[in-house]
Amino acid sequence: MQKRGRSFIGAAVTLRDEPREPEIIHQDFNSMTPENAMKWESTEPSRNNFTLTDADRYAEFAKKNHLQLHCHTLVWHSQLPLWVSEGGFDNKTLIGVMENHIKKLVTRYRGVCTRWDVVNEALNEDGTYRKSVWYDTIGESFIPIAFSLVRKYDKKVQLFYNDYNLEYNNEKTAGAKRIVKLIKSHGVEIDGVGYQAHLASEATPTAPGAAPDQKTLEAAFHATADEGVNVIYTEIDLRMNTPATADKLKVQAAAYERVAKSCLAVKRCMGMTVWGISDKYSWIPGVFTGEGAALLWDENYNKKPAYAGFLKGIRG
Ligand code: G3I
């Protein structure tokens, strides 16, 4: 991967009592994303009361294991405490609240975070802006403001806009392109766009929600990369209807292969992160009823065919 000019293969991590996970991280990954620990509800549950013990554990783990740390996430409508989302702040005060949060987190993890997801999931499926306290109070300029504030407190960390369903090269992808242009039009830096890649591993790539064919994945990357930013996959998981069968696992392996290939085929794709390690803990069954088995290791930490498919895609 590095020989081919890419910088990381990562996993979302929840530090838990599972001895196989650190071993796997050590063997297979050089980057990690804290799955929940750096989100607003975990780090600033009430105004100016920062609870960073848990987030610190992830930063320490990354340092100790020489991993890149993909820090997730600063400005998001979800996992946002009510004191922010229903605080009734005016424009100026809300920007102050945002700056106080960004300043604390970005300064504390300066030199440890390789990348920050600065703004997460600001778009609706049709590419318009999602209703949120940020957009409703500040308007679209909440996005360049957030990026400029992160840069103010860390001159080096890479700044990402991150969203899901950008992989289809459709209206939502065009929305992400518009965001890149918007940020730049304010004279503010953005390093890249994160494509989450929470997709279904259907045999037919055109099925709704399925991982699209490779050409579409590449075109979706180009939509933003051609604006002069890097692109990455930030949260890959390719779910199936459970229970898994040999046939479905084969289809999933092929989907992992084409997702990986699409990154390697696009020069500006710098790396990929899978959203977890074992199927045992994936968020999918809790949200998509009857679906799951979306990751590279099964519930017993055995490598699945998807692992070989992903590796094949990486090696080309
Ligand atoms: O920590 C509490 C625990 O104290 C409580 O007993 C338990 C009861 O439900 O909940 C625990 O919190 C859960 C948290 O994960 C930590 O496990 C929340 O309920 C649960 O909603 C939360 O889910 C996370 C989800 O984001 C929330 O939106 C998932 O783990 C996490 O994988 C998921 O990740 C998101 C990315 O951040 C953004 N992109 C989409 C992706 C998938 O939804």
From TrEMBL:
Reaction it catalyzes: Endohydrolysis of (1->4)-beta-D-xylosidic linkages in xylans
Q: What is its EC number?
A: 3.2.1.8
UniProt-annotated location(s): Secreted
One GO BP annotation of this record: xylan catabolic process
> What pathway is this protein a component of?
Glycan degradation; xylan degradation
What is any one of the record's Gene Ontology cellular component terms?
extracellular region
- UniProt keyword Iron-sulfur present: no
GO function terms (MF aspect): endo-1,4-beta-xylanase activity
Residue ranges constituting the GH10 domain according to the UniProt record? 1-313
Q: According to the lineage, what is the superkingdom?
A: Eukaryota
Protein's UniProt keywords contain Kinase = no
User: Matching SUPFAM superfamilies, A to Z?
Assistant: (Trans)glycosidases
The principal localisation class reads secreted
Keywords for this entry?
A: Carbohydrate metabolism, Glycosidase, Hydrolase, Polysaccharide degradation, Secreted, Xylan degradation
- Which family does the record assign? Belongs to the glycosyl hydrolase 10 (cellulase F) family.
Q: What is this protein called?
A: Beta-xylanase
